[in-house]
Specification:
Oligomer: homodimer
Structural class of chain A: alpha+beta
Distance between the termini of chain A: 50 Å
Number of helices of chain A: 24
CATH superfamily of the largest domain in chain A: Bira Bifunctional Protein, Domain 2
Strand content of chain A: 15-25%
Number of strands of chain A: 29
Number of domains of chain A: 4
CATH architecture of the largest domain in chain A: 2-Layer Sandwich
CATH class of the largest domain in chain A: Alpha Beta
Largest sheet of chain A: 10 strands, mixed
Largest interface: A-B, 81 and 81 residues
Radius of gyration of chain A: 33 Å
Helix content of chain A: 25-40%
């Protein structure tokens, strides 16, 4: 399954010739999509609440009846006492149910905390221009965001590291293809026909909504806020949530009608759901006759170049090609901020491999890794993700093959090196119903964020599907050869219909009969041969005619012939790790964000604890006060930092060092050099707030060594005199 | 004037509110666009040829007349002798004219050589996958190209260096905005209305052509191949070539009709020229109601973010923002290979500066540079580009200001460091008619290639135009403030119409009279004040009424008031260096390409002499023969190269070392390590073919030092024992 491809899953019957598209790649608890997770407690509480409600109602009626019948006061009082008791009981159950729901649901207290956390992160990101809603002065466009200076620097660091970690270390063949893509390419890949989401329109205003979003919102809202629904109704809604990804347009429409869901903004009725293609369409050239699209992924640019790349690689398998670039997706109604956008950067690898040999020579390098994995079986049986050793997972067949396993390991290393919290990173295997029929195995690297578990990298063994699709459409063979060291003798079935005899016998049906004969598999053919040899005649069902015909011995020749073969020609399998760079970066922001009290304790200060590798600026340089001596020293350091390639910023604002530290912490700058003499300086580390004194001359090289991982801060701390933070009024 | 913007120049009258768009950014000899360069020789030869033709014709008639009159044989023979002599003379002049034309024209012998050279470069580039026509298996799309592995590596190196040289060294604010852009933004910038080329259609087939291309081709063809045209016609065609950039659609249409130019493929008649907008259009969101375009440049993303960036920079000027990204242009009929494409990478800088102070503190760093400059005056007077000292060019006012000069210098350094031949690089100033009315000064970095002089970087002082355009359209002030250290007293004109008196006097015309009074400039107002004070009454022309009215003293109060001002608010000027990355890379390919004979002398080998900075791979590693010992050593070196960040490739093919060197030279790999022992290796430098012996342990660090410019090859040559090339069978 392809990362970021589409937001609606087609019913399985439709997907047999197509790259499979995926629904929301954000999951709260995948378990909910397997079993109908009506927690025992919740179920009995809903049951109990409904009983208590009935009792209260019945007792209320009883009280009214007693009063109407002017019953004795003690009797009435006793009945009222009972009513009050029942009401108390009902209210207690109600509270308990409320608690149960909110502790398990996505918008309960946990989620309130998550939202407050997210707001703090997002506020800091926007204020410090990590990102900016695009075209803000024109009131923006939903789903489009700019990266501001620190965001750009982070992105550029992430991409450099990606290029180093994947392309350079693995000798991949990088390509860079245009975003504008002619229709024929995306027709072959299946995007023109199938890359759609189901949409409904407000029948009066024409406003468009994603049909599954509306149904999902309705179910969640009912389940979380409406305590009066019965246990049965609750179970039904939960089932809908679990299976809605597989709904056809008709099924989705039926649910929307059943629940009387209306347009959220106007309460107007909604149209039936219909598919909306998510590609941005355009036209190439002045004639208007060549339809084109902005590519929805970068992978197709690699597939269409397979032949050249295979030759470039000396006609050897395996090899990988990679591409980093923009992809586009005209979302119906983007939400979830930076996670679902209309234009984003993808980094994709297509590793081409012999389907008969998916071993990987470097697999031992990652076999010892242990991390959270969430195999299919664990998901189906309601367990949670667990720490597995990658080598064992491959050995046991949990992960389909070594190459797939190798990439899972490399992706793990990549994400953790960036600063993703390994406790909030898991590899989730696709369930059978999530995968396309042709896929051998798929795993998503999911990162937990305030939005839930986010699919950030998809790693799929897509078999030969993509190359075959383009071979067929273009007529150019996209295949590899394996030369045999010595020719092999191969036995081949040869079926030769004798057209003249068939023509005499079947006239205009001759062609259908011929084709059916040629289409027999080996077993059928050998059986026919035997029967013809013994009986001279055989009954044969021609499916294209819908009837049986009688075949005689002289009408067909069937034999097995031995042939010398010098090579095997085959379509390579492709293993595809596909990275959503923007999603990874957003999760990184959340994982690195923290707050700590200011020294005075009067406010919370924000800190992005980025590893130096991704920090937008590696170092700030502060002259303690503005004078010529310090300015000169600052210039010397700045020049040296530039020459060792350490991005830095000089802050000469007159504010206190404490304020300047706070400002720099909020950008995630790992080191600060304070210039308070012209011979030595203070270097301060962001997370520990520790400071050491280093000579002016050494300052740049110390920072560069720690920033580039050649030294740890502990090494620095052990090697240089410590500096009391008295001067730093944090 | 903006790089790559458009291919048709609007007649000046149309461009007063618009970023000025440019015609073909490829010029053969700019001189030809100034004076009508009918070379004296060519003119007299055409004249002479026409006279000789007349003489030949006249003498031919004379001979025929003599024969008809049965004149005496000696007389006829003498006449025939003269005719033959005249024919010989005509033929000599013809040859000379042919020679003159081809030596000066673009498709003469020089150009044949250029084309052969280009073909050699392009063949190598395509064969080694520096680039690939996009979607090749589907027969491609004109104007779209992929970068293959070495092309990607070169591009990535060029962009890294750009980021280092400009963004990091100058502390620029990088942004990264989407390609998909809503219409309102490009309406404000002028692109929706004016970003067009003039197109003509084949009236029968509908095939589209660029109108100016057809006219240009016609003129060049006539001038170069038709020797019979008169000197006057030749002069006319040359004038057309010189001024056609300024033609209106009507003028262009008139020329096409006059010369009876037809569709090149079918000879069908052509439509009148009409403007075709070059932006790829699309639609944002599912409703189809928000028109959008793929951005034609990255600059607008910076302008719309000016306010946030200005605040981010602490509300201080000057500062620069930069963006690297894709831009799109739906060319009518792309030609010139990689130079005119439909999607390309731009790197743009917008340096915002106080219009009253365009000095640059780092200008002294570049003031001493000397390189080819081609100021307006030299172009107008028919001289050629000459070496100037940048500091003097700014001091003399040839370059408008220091900041513009600083960027010219930085661009020069950037291009030369990449490997552009400084002898084939010039900075050409725009002529007055090339610039927009608002631009203060513009210079293009032009690089000479087989296509002529190519505009690769545009460096323009665009004044406040862009920010003003977006302020107006968005209603958001895009301004900067200069706080005064102490308040300034400013005298301001105050005109206050007395509405009551005006109403009594002019009834319904009161409003028009009031507005006209308020619209007076200082001089008009002070004159009126003086007249009113002396006469008590004045005649006043109200243009919105189209008549004069009589204004009395009590109807308006005019005064000058002193006001305290604490700051000056102004729209910054912007100086914009804009880099066409693909064009720079293509020119780099041509400048670095050379051939040399193979050792056997039986073939020409191709070499790309890339500086290590841009070389796609820095080093190849060859085990001399395949055995375990060498393989181990190769692995050790490979691991060390990876750890010092040197991209490399291992070539274990069994072919001869000479063949492997040739293959690596053709990719422009500067160094090759041959492993022929497990203790020491050979390092070979590409251009000199010199080889040294270095210990296995040192190999990676030696290569990395030279590749990163910390050492020169001369240093290496001086420090290590030389290796005889006997083993290398080059």
């Amino acid at each position: 399954m392809r990362l970021f491809l589409s937001a609606f899953v087609f019913p399985r019957k439709q997907i047999f010739t197509l790259r499979r598209f995926q629904s929301s790649s954000i999951r709260h608890e995948p378990i909910s999509s397997i079993q109908i997770p009506m927690d025992g407690t919740e179920q009995s509480l809903r049951q109990s609440l409904s009983e208590k409600s009935s009792s209260v109602e019945a007792q209320g009626n009883a009280v009214r009846a007693l009063k109407a019948a002017r019953a004795a006061k003690p009797d009435i009082d006793a009945a009222i006492d009972l009513l009050n008791k029942l009401k108390l009981e009902k209210s207690a159950v109600e509270k308990q149910l409320q608690l149960t729901i909110s502790s398990s649901s996505s918008s309960g207290n946990g989620s309130l905390n998550r939202e407050a956390f997210r707001q703090a992160v997002v506020n800091t990101l926007e204020r410090r221009l990590f990102y900016i809603p695009s075209f803000k002065i024109y009131r923006g466009v939903a789903g489009l965001f700019d990266y501001g200076p620190p965001g750009c620097a982070v992105k550029s660091n992430v991409l450099s590291f990606w290029r180093q970690h994947f392309i350079l270390e693995e000798n991949m063949l990088e390509v860079d293809c245009p975003c504008v893509t002619p229709e024929v390419v995306l027709k072959a890949s299946g995007h023109v026909d199938k890359f759609t989401d189901l949409m409904v329109k407000d029948e009066k205003t024409g406003t468009c909504y994603r049909a599954d979003h509306l149904l999902k919102d309705y179910c969640n809202e009912k389940l979380e806020k409406d305590l009066t629904i019965s246990a049965d109704t609750a179970a039904e809604l939960k089932e809908v949530l679990a299976v809605m990804e597989d709904y056809s347009p008709e099924e989705l429409g039926a649910r929307i009608r059943k629940y009387e869901i209306t347009a959220p903004d106007t309460k107007n009725p909604l149209s039936d759901p219909y598919p909306f293609n998510l590609m941005f369409q355009t036209s190439i050239g002045p004639s208007g006759l060549i339809p084109g699209y902005m590519r929805p992924e970068t992978a197709q640019g690699i597939f269409v170049n397979f032949k050249d790349l295979y030759y470039y690689n000396g006609r050897k398998l395996p090899f990988a090609a990679a591409q980093i670039g923009q992809a586009f997706r005209n979302e119906i109604s983007p939400r979830q901020g930076l996670l679902r956008v209309r234009e984003f950067t993808l980094a994709e690898i297509e590793h081409f491999v012999d389907p008969e040999n998916k071993s990987h020579p470097k697999f031992p390098d990652v076999a010892e890794l242990e991390f959270l994995m969430f195999p299919r079986e664990e998901q189906m049986s309601g367990q949670s993700a667990k720490k597995l050793c990658l080598g064992e997972a491959v050995a046991k067949g949990t992960v389909n093959n070594e190459t797939l396993g190798y990439f899972i390991g490399r992706v793990y290393l990549f994400l953790v090196r960036l600063g993703i919290d390994k406790g909030r990173l898991r590899f989730r295997q696709h369930l059978a119903n999530e995968m396309a029929h042709y896929a051998a195995d798929c795993w998503d690297a999911e990162i937990e964020s305030s939005y839930g578990w986010i699919e950030c990298v998809g790693i799929a063994d897509r078999s030969a599907y993509d190359l075959r699709a383009h071979s067929e459409k273009s007529g150019v063979d996209l295949v590899a050869e394996e030369k045999f060291s010595e020719p092999k003798i191969v036995e081949k079935l040869v079926i030769t219909p004798v057209k003249k005899e068939l023509g005499l016998a079947f006239k205009k049906d001759q062609k259908n009969v011929s084709e059916s004969l040629e289409a027999m598999n080996e077993q059928e053919a050998m059986e026919m041969k035997a029967t013809l040899e013994s009986n001279g005649e055989v009954e044969f069902y021609v499916c294209t005619l819908g009837k049986k015909v009688s075949i005689k011995k002289n009408m067909v020749s069937i034999s097995k012939e031995k042939k010398k073969e010098h090579q095997r020609v085959f379509t390579p399998s492709v293993i595809e790790p596909s990275f959503g760079i923007g999603r990874i970066i957003y999760c990184l922001y959340e994982h690195c964000f923290s707050t700590r009290p200011s020294k005075a304790g009067d406010e919370q200060l924000n800190v992005f604890r980025f590893p130096p590798l991704v920090a937008p600026i590696k170092c700030t340089v502060f002259p303690l006060v503005q004078n010529q001596q310090f300015e000169e020293a600052t210039k010397v350091i700045s020049k040296e930092l530039t020459s060792v390639g350490i991005s830095h910023k000089i802050d000469i604002t007159g504010t206190s060092i404490g304020k300047r530290y706070a400002r720099t912490d909020e950008l995630g700058v790992p080191f600060a050099i304070t210039v308070d003499s012209d011979t030595s300086v203070t270097i301060r580390e962001r997370d520990s707030k520790d400071q050491v004194r280093v000579s002016l001359k050494e300052a740049a090289s110390v920072v560069s060594s720690v920033a580039e991982g050649k030294m740890t801060w502990q090494d620095v701390w052990a090697s240089f005199p410590h500096h009391s933070s008295a001067t730093a009024d944090e």
